[in-house]
Amino acid sequence: MKKSYQGFIYGALLAIGVLLGYWISSGSIIQSKQNYASEEKISEVISFVLDNYVDSVDHEQMVQNAIIGMLEKLDPHSVYISKEEFDAVNDPLMGEFEGIGIQFRIERDSIVVINPIPNGPSEKKGIRPGDRIVRVDGENVAGIGIENEDVLRLLKGEKGTKVIVGIYRRGVSGITDYEITRDVIPLNSLDAAFLLDSKNAYIKLNSFSATTYEEFRTAVLNLREKGAQNLILDLRDNGGGFLSAAVDIADDFLPNNQTIVYTEGVHRKKKNYKSRGKGLWEDGKVVILVNEFSASASEILAGAIQDNDRGFVVGRRTFGKGLVQEQIDLRDGSAMRITVARYYTPSGRCIQRPYDNGAEEYYLDFYKTLMLDDSAAYEYNNAKNDSLIYKTLSGRTVYGGGGIIPDSVVMKDFILSTEIRTELFGSGKLFQEVFNFVDNNRTELRQKYPNVQIFMAAFTVPSSLYNSITSGMKSEISLSDSRSINHFIKANVAREMFSYEAYYRVTASDDEVIKTALYLLR
Fold this sequence. Notes:
Layout: H1 2-15, E1 23-25, E2 28-30, H2 36-52, H3 59-72, E3 79-81, H4 86-94, E4 96-99, E5 102-107, E6 110-116, H5 121-125, E7 132-136, E8 139-140, H6 148-155, E9 162-168, E10 176-181, E11 183-186, E12 190-195, E13 200-205, H7 212-225, E14 230-234, H8 243-253, E15 259-265, E16 268-274, E17 285-290, H9 297-307, E18 312-315, E19 323-329, E20 335-344, H10 359-370, H11 374-382, E21 389-391, E22 397-399, E23 408-409, H12 418-426, H13 429-448, H14 452-458, H15 463-470, H16 479-497, H17 500-507, H18 512-521
Helix pairs in contact: 1-2, 7-8, 8-9, 13-15, 13-16, 16-17
């Protein structure tokens, strides 16, 4: 048994060869002699622990821990993905998964359907917003402490397989069973695309997946038909994804043969990505919106627009991730993402934040920036490293060394004090009360406000809903605060009734970053 396990260890070490000095070429792995002793040492340590440790040891977990330890010592973005986590991590990047097609959340220990995916298998069967899933294949799932991961395990599955869900619906006695055939379900990376006024369009991207460019292209063509001349592209809270998606979108803004980004590493030759011309938005103005959670591919796109003097970047300093990862799938269903290169904006900037003190300090330093008071936060967002000066295409000065600094810094998206925002959103009370309000009045609301346009024009937040949300708040609420709170309540009612796009349609008129973008466009 010990011998066979050593064989397993050697197999695992071969699979992570790029960490131990292997060169992978044409599907073969050539082991360098100088690393053989190091591999034997690792195998020897694991074998000794398995045979001698005071408590029993999980073999596979020990190997995983060894891999995790090796990777996290390289940089903060090289990571191991277990086979249990694989689908959850990769599905959003692939832009689709296989399942029954619902957006859900757990409310009061019940699975509540927020919205069925349009044209998905659940919608086609008649599943509605507000439905409670109380049984899955005859098994009770209500009131048992079910978690999101459990719901995904029960409802996801291969295309063509069937699952029977028992639905409780308000106004209908008993539980109704629906047999649903699983199918391929799209995961949209585009949350919203609409006109702010007669000529200014708005697009919100939440990630850069395999389907992002096609989603973006479809939205742009539609907005063009409606008369859009200028575009505000919102990348706030967009943590990135595929570099290729960011490059394709940047290409639509830039004339022929302009540098979008280039990548380079010790084992990766310099690769230059350039625009190919005939883009969808070469002749229209553009503003990119960013914040502290805009990272990776978002920063590549923002950097390309800024360095080529193609448009404005507005918001707050971005995260500062300038490393490129490559995913290697391992034979047991797990994977690892390894940093293989750095990326550089057209002016030559690498905007990666320092990580010399390890991953823990790297993320801790980032979270500290989120806790700064207003004056310190303003100073951080405008801080420039004079030793890392670069020039844009027209000769403007830009800076490297830690994120993209916007052309126009806007410290707050919405005018609300930090204390009130924390109370309003931190407890989850707003979302809970809004859900209860919509859930209890869904039929009446749908009849009165059949579409977003009518809702935006006619809906007023009932005082009872406002009071249920603000009662118990310790912060003093001014008249201006009250107006903003009502605005957020209305936006969340719109999201609960219609979609995320409805939410952004409502919030846009009160969003200080969007207001600044519109000012610059005018």
